[in-house]
């Protein structure tokens, strides 16, 4: 197996996994951060980050992806976490992070490359408390220690035998259990449009209203909202933007739009932002009008798509002064 004989700590930290000569700022996109306001030395407004799924098809480890994101020019990334151990990421062929790792060590790795965590991707079926409660609680604690402000999730795949009323009761039970943990650790929970309920704007809002808390809101996914085909994605964003903590900047190529819109409720990754059907100028205008202060986390499938997405979104944010 790859990386045989290397300790876990070396696996996360050793630059030999990622090669020499990687730089914190890549040639390419002009940063919009200089245009944004400052508060206490922290950049305010809309910022561009990258979901670590951009290296999923590259079959490289998390540490390689962090360095690659920095080389491209990203300042924010969104790790995906799992419980326990599994073969592919342990061998260095996959990008997810086990929550058995030391979260402070992951934070150190990001800081080494000039990155901050925009959030954690910790999707699980909220309608199945036996799966989701312990997982999300652990993800919240992990996020708090590694410095990720948001845990992003969705209602998950609902069992065929479960009717809608039962599903919402199960989701409410899960949220009532995990939201107090999020409040104690000052972590937000972002519900994402990703399955059969949440691609409907009214049902997405209904889920977020099952528990009253300022820590419970949304992670808007432009691609999933579009593919669902039941709610206009821009109208959805306008309806939820005041409670939106995080954005998944996912574009959908024209062929996928024609083949799948209205037939699916999500997709693993999108194409490069600006090369699909999503109107990013319209998205950014909605965010600017609402005073959004957060990260648009690009969800794409390859390194070249990540490069193109950063350039495209940064140009739009700069033009709009968002």
Structure in words:
The protein has 322 residues and is α/β, with parallel strands linked by helices. It has one domain: Alpha-Beta Barrel (TIM Barrel), CATH 3.20.20. 41% of the residues lie in helices and 16% in strands. It contains twelve helices and 13 strands. It has helices spanning 8-13, 62-72, 87-91, 103-112, 129-146, 164-185, 201-208, 222-228, 233-240, 254-260, 280-290, 303-320, and strands at residues 38-39, 42-43, 46-51, 76-78, 81-82, 97-98, 116-117, 120-125, 150-154, 188-191, 216-221, 244-249, 294-298. Strands 7-4-3-13-12-11-10-9-8 form a nine-stranded parallel sheet. It has a two-stranded antiparallel ribbon with strand order 1-2. Strands 5-6 form a two-stranded parallel ribbon. It is globular.
């Amino acid at each position: 197996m790859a990386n045989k004989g290397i300790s876990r700590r070396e696996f996360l930290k050793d630059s030999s996994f990622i090669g020499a000569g990687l730089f914190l700022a890549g040639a390419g996109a002009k940063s919009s951060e200089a245009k944004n306001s400052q508060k206490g030395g922290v950049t305010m407004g809309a910022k561009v980050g990258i979901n670590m799924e951009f290296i999923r098809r590259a079959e490289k480890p998390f540490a390689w992806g962090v360095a690659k994101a920095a080389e491209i020019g990203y300042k924010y990334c969104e790790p995906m976490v799992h419980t326990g151990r599994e073969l592919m990421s342990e061998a260095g062929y996959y990008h997810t992070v086990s929550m058995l790792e030391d979260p402070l060590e992951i934070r150190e790795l990001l800081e080494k490359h000039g990155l901050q965590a925009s959030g954690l991707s910790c999707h699980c079926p909220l309608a199945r408390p036996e799966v989701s409660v312990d997982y999300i609680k652990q993800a919240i604690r992990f996020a708090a220690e590694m410095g990720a402000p948001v845990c992003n999730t969705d209602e998950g795949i609902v069992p065929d035998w479960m009717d809608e009323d039962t599903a919402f009761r199960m989701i409410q039970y899960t949220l009532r259990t995990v939201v107090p943990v999020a409040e104690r650790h000052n972590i937000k929970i972002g519900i994402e449009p990703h399955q059969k309920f949440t691609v409907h704007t009214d049902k997405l809002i209904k889920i977020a209203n099952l528990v009253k808390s300022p820590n419970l809101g949304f992670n808007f996914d432009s691609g999933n909202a579009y593919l669902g085909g039941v709610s206009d994605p821009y109208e959805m964003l306008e309806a939820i933007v005041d409670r939106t903590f995080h954005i998944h900047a996912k574009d959908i190529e024209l062929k996928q739009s024609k083949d799948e819109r209205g037939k699916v409720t999500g997709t693993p990754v999108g194409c490069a932002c600006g090369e699909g059907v999503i109107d990013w100028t319209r998205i950014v205008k909605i965010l600017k009008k609402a005073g959004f202060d957060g990260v648009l986390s690009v969800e794409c499938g390859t390194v070249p798509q990540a490069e193109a997405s950063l350039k495209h979104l940064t140009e739009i944010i700069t033009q709009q002064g968002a």
